[in-house]
Amino acid sequence: MLRIGVLGSYGGLNLGDEAILTCVLNGLRQIRPTAELIIFSRHPEDSRHRFGVTAVPYTGVSQNRLIEAETGLDLLVLGGGGVLHDGQASAVLRPVRLAQELGIPTFGYAIGAGPLTDRAEIRVVREVVENLTDLTVRDHESVLVLENAGVGRQISVTADAAILLEPEEFTEEMLLREGIDSHDRLVGMSVREPGRAADHLDEASYHELLANAADFMTCRLQAQTVFVPMERGDITHAHAVLSAMNAPETARILNRAYRPAQIAGLMRHLDFAVGMRLHFVMFAASAGVPVLPLPYAGKVFDFAQVVGAPALTGVARRETGPLLAELDRLWDERDACTERLRQRFTVLRERALQNLERCRALIDGLEVQASPQASPQASPTADMGANLGGADAGPVRPQRP
């Protein structure tokens, strides 16, 4: 039985990250149904509750505890999402570096990088990423960030793991419990807080921008605005936008806790969407909902380009005129937009499946190397990591009894 660790910004902090983890775990189960999966989480209790598998902490723990958690792993997967940025990269790569020192193969599964400006963080990223057994990234922005950090290895661009998330039903009863009339036109909206990934945002400016957008859609579309929090802090900023609206009575904020797949299922009720959070935009686009991304960061702008969605150059009060004009145009062209999204997502899903195939090839190669019957010369998959543009798999540890 293989033992595979999955590491990321997990623990219920963000529905986008939990969507990524859902898809990575599903993919690993598809590759090796009998494998034992261990989540390295910021909040292990939350991860155990959500996914029903072993979960261990990797922040705020000693080196000895990490060694104990990693001993016996056959593979450590750095499991996707924007984990390599200032303020987080060193912490999330600490278990990866340790795994490399212990001779455990490591795989970067559609990871995202940036912003990355701190010299210490850049050095850690460069050293650890160079030594990954294999690697895929989710967008071209991440390639540029890693190359600027000095990473010289071949980097393959695929797609975010959450592209493959299967929606769950969001029922009419669930809408009614949130005070939402499903017979109205519904416009989904996603806001976020300024943070390490968006420290340039001026709160008052973008709150007013989004309030103007919500009021415009209420008038133009006779629609109800539904604020969709992707993490707890979004609720505060949704209330701030709502309080700045001229018609706050036409808006609702989702107050209950939902799984990522349920939020993906909510999208089928929406007629239109405007969003800052990457995975909100992704879920809307996947459902064919005309969506206007608000690119507070390169990853959102990059995704907008990939799916052919319009995107502003910034999120500030001065963008109100262009934003309203873009909303008006996008609504008029909504049928063509939906068709374009469906075509682009066919390609994106194929690219997301490449992450799974790369991981499968790596595991196949490791098993061949570990087999006592196999010789290095006899197996074409023994050097699979090198053939895929990755580093050598590293020393192979003995099979456990």
TrEMBL record:
Source taxon at top rank: Bacteria
Biased composition (Low complexity): 370-380
Gene Ontology MF: a single term: transferase activity
Region of interest (Disordered), ranges: 370-401
Presence of the UniProt keyword Transferase in the record: yes
Domain Polysaccharide pyruvyl transferase intervals: 14-296
Protein name: Polysaccharide pyruvyl transferase family protein
Source species: Actinoallomurus acaciae
